[in-house]
Amino acid sequence: MVETNYLPPLRVVHINNSDVRGGAAVAANRLNVALRNFGVDSSMLVQEAVSDAENIVQAGDGKLYKGKAFTRFVLERLTFLPYERNSVLRFAFSPANTGLDITKHPLVQEADIVHLHWINQGYLSLKSLKKLFDTGKPVVWTLHDMWPFTGGCHYSGTCLEFLERCSFCPYLRKPSKNDLSSRQFDLKKKLYRDVKLHPVACSKWLRALSSESSLFRNKEVSAIPNPIDVDVFKPLDRAECRKSLGLPQDKKLLLFGAANVNDMRKGARYLFEALNILIDSFPVFKEKVEVVVFGKMSQDTKAGIQLGIHNLKYVSNIEELVKIYNAADIFVLPSLQDNLPNTVMESMACGTPVVAFSTGGVPEMVKHLHTGFLAESKNALNLATGIYETIFLSDMEQMRKNAREKVLAEYTSDVVARQYVEVYEKLLGND
Asked: With the CA atoms of 74, 77, 79 and 83 taken in that order, what torsion angle do they form, in degrees rounded to the nearest 10?
């Protein structure tokens, strides 16, 4: 444990919707552990706690609390129904009109720093945020997506309205100059105005976007990556991992996965198109390559893969997840827009090269032809090229080594925790 300048230790409370469900939850949980190992009195206050770790606290207990939490989630969705463009985009926009007041919770009252993460789906509303800001406590906000500086969308795609003032939102049924996105944008602008708030983007890409937004233009925004435990996510014997998982030893295995594979932003259609290109161009490809998928996947999505497929569904066991990464020859990420994906970091930590679209924060992680292959976004042919070249033509052993070394240099728990402590110290005037 590394000693800090604080006696007693600096107290930080992380606010996130869940402790394990979703990429932001995983990242926030890992940061919480990293800070505790660094000597910070860190804890998580969540709407829904799944694990029973001592330093993770649910904001309430009992059936009544759970019932109210579910009601808040449903109300937030129901109030958005009249505005949503279609059901596919239902969770791409959060109105933040329903939430919980957590200011009286002991963890918040005792904290030196309130550290926000992903707070939607009925956990904190904009009114909840105002009450939290009114406590006067310094606030750090890790940006796991774009929602904190947009009028409501989590990823804006090609829309740049958030730079000045959201309006004509493509996620809404009736976009206009004064639509729901514009009204929520105005509320956020007023809310953030006089708050001691330090946003932290997980990638340099997101820092650039958030700094250009009129909501955060006058804030100092840092870029600090998510941490990963390299003693957990590490290279293992690939043959043994395949044997343990019941995967074939004589095939090249392509890994694809996400919490929700069906999410359009995850780009599954481009992967399937790329695989079909390879099958048509190289018939032997179908004989030598099979696909491993983890995460929620519909039957229609599964039917789009014309190769042997191993559907592992949702994987919650970390040891099993590490084996999956180690069993694969490559991990493919065809996301159309992403921040700093945990899956990429996990794969690289296990020494598995990544083939991905060059979008969002991914190029900060994957070095072209060094730790994987970066394809032009939405270009299935280029993605197909990357898959084929990486699996069959590259120096895989060297690429595996490079991937692991990249993670060890930039994403270990100590490296990330130290950067966050510097942010905390500055906010508290202890730098």
From this structure: -160
Cβ atoms within 10 A of the Cβ of 302, count?
Answer: 13
| Residue 295 near residue 332, CB atoms below 8 Å | no
Tokens of 345: 């970091």
Q: What is the CATH number of domain 238-410?
A: 3.40.50.2000
User: Within the chain, which residue ranges are assigned CATH 3.40.50.2000?
Assistant: 11-227+412-427, 238-410
Consecutive 10-residue averages of pLDDT for the chain (431 residues): 58 95 91 94 94 89 92 92 87 93 96 96 95 95 96 92 95 94 96 93 94 94 95 96 94 84 76 92 90 77 73 82 96 89 94 95 94 95 96 94 96 95 90 59
Helix H segments across 52-162?
62-80, 106-110, 126-133
Instruction: Using alpha carbons only, give the angle 8, 28, 422 rounded to the nearest 5 degrees.
Output: 50
Task: Classify domain 11-227+412-427 at the CATH topology level.
Answer: Rossmann fold (3.40.50)
Q: State residue 183 phi and psi, 5-degree precision.
A: -65, -40
Q: Is 177 exposed, middle or buried (0-12, 13-18, 19+ CB in 10 A)?
A: exposed
d(CA 261, CA 222): 30
Distance (Å) of CA 325 to CA 74, 202, 300: 35, 22, 25
The token duo for 295 is 């995460």
Could you report how far apart the first and last alpha carbons of the chain are, in Å?
A: 21
Helix (H) / strand (E) element for 310: namely: strand 308-313
Q: Which of 182, 184, 156, 183 is nearest to 170 (CA)?
A: 156
Quickly tell me which residue has 């955060």 as its tokens.
216
